Amino acid sequence: MIKILEKFNFWNTPPGDIGYFRKNYIELFSKYIGNSLIKVISGQRRVGKSYLFRLFINWLITQKNIPQKNIFYLNKDIYELDFINTSEKLQFAIQTFMDHLKPEGTIFLFLDEIQEIKGWEKVVNSFSQHYIDRFEIFITGSNANLLSTELSTYLTGRYLLFHVFPFSYSEYLGINNLKRHKLSYIDYLKHGGMSETYSLHDLEIKQNYYQNLRDAILLKDVVKRYQIRDVNLLEKLVMFIIDSIGSYLSVNKIVNHLKTHHYKATHETIGAYLTYLKNTYFIHESERYDIKGKRILTGERKYYLNDLGFKYYLTSSFEFGIGKYLENMVYIKLLSSGYKVYTGKIAGKEIDFIAEKDNEKQYIQVADILPDERIIEREFGNLELIPDNYEKMVVSLDDIQMGNRNGIKHINAWTFC
């Protein structure tokens, strides 16, 4: 047991320089150490949760002088650790580590893809409440249901949740040593935020990467977890959502579309499948909000991809308009910045995004370009209908910045994101 665990831990050799430093996340995690709360890092598969664990372990050792023997790391994606699959074996592995290394002071536990261990919550809960030894516990999971339902049941009030997103535009620039300008931003819109693809220079290889990632998410996080029988229907739904990002959809509209393509689909099934896809962070849902009536509207809503690479590499074109790519990326930027995001409606007009955080709001319109006065009037005019004094802006890919109009800002997309 010790020999296997030692191979994947840093007890004898520090992790050293292990790649691009995702500063925002490391700073965020560091603010919340020093208590018994369980730190839960969630996000889509391959988004970099394990990578962040290794970065943070390195930071603890090199910057906080935490002894290497005080850190236990278990990554359930590694096949050699597959045998640790029950609460009893997890308990035994951690106890064996403690008996062998005899750490003194706070012990850090990093448990990666925890949902692969049956009964994990019993062990995590036990160590978090340990009254002899003190533990700092970090866990990751690739399914929102694991966090919203199971954690709430077993660890009520004793955990903090952090959501990890793909690389941001700023991180894309940093890891690729690029400058902030329109062309690099458009490249980012194409390539997405999965950093593993940045070293891949062949289109076919990148397409294979995203295809395999999509299949892993569907098969492991949806089909296996929720015991889906009609895999073909699920795959057809996924491709329809990918083709329809930024468009208003309802369950009824999706069911009717699938039926025209000879797929048997019920409202209950499609509603459940959409929930499963949201739980894996493959897609995000933006509800429609009536600004004047101050209420959530039922029925249609928009869906956005967690990473645009699924759109670009699985359909290989901008044919449905770069504006939809931009809209998707602005949405993800807002979401990753901690905003609750809605699509808006006022006086029969559409507002692309209403972003709320800490009792503040932003109203945002997104357009690829503003080529003439008619389009300018449409984008700015919709925002002018909103009677409050919260910040309002139009984000576009225009080469020039048009300044303010009646207090509404115009922002180049590569400076906003």
Would you kindly provide a written description of the structure presented here, covering whatever features stand out?
The protein has 417 residues and is of the alpha/beta class. It has 2 domains: 2-163, Rossmann fold; 169-416, Orthogonal Bundle (Arc Repressor Mutant, subunit A), CATH 1.10.10.10. The protein is built from 16 helices and 14 strands. It has helices spanning 2-7, 23-30, 49-63, 87-101, 120-128, 144-154, 169-176, 182-191, 203-226, 231-243, 251-260, 267-279, 309-315, 322-336, 373-384, 413-416; strands spanning 38-42, 71-75, 107-112, 135-141, 159-163, 248-249, 283-290, 295-305, 340-346, 349-357, 360-367, 391-396, 404-405, 408-412. The chain has a 9-stranded mixed beta sheet with strand order 6-8-7-9-10-11-12-14-13, with helices on both faces. The chain has a 5-stranded parallel beta sheet with strand order 2-3-4-1-5, with helices on both faces. Helix 2 (23-30) crosses helix 3. The protein is globular. The model has no long low-confidence stretch (mean pLDDT 93).
Secondary structure layout:
Elements: H1 2-7, H2 23-30, E1 38-42, H3 49-63, E2 71-75, H4 87-101, E3 107-112, H5 120-128, E4 135-141, H6 144-154, E5 159-163, H7 169-176, H8 182-191, H9 203-226, H10 231-243, E6 248-249, H11 251-260, H12 267-279, E7 283-290, E8 295-305, H13 309-315, H14 322-336, E9 340-346, E10 349-357, E11 360-367, H15 373-384, E12 391-396, E13 404-405, E14 408-412, H16 413-416
Parallel strand pairs: 1-4, 1-5, 2-3, 3-4, 7-9, 11-12, 12-14
Antiparallel strand pairs: 6-8, 7-8, 9-10, 10-11, 13-14
Helix pairs in contact: 2-3, 4-5, 9-13
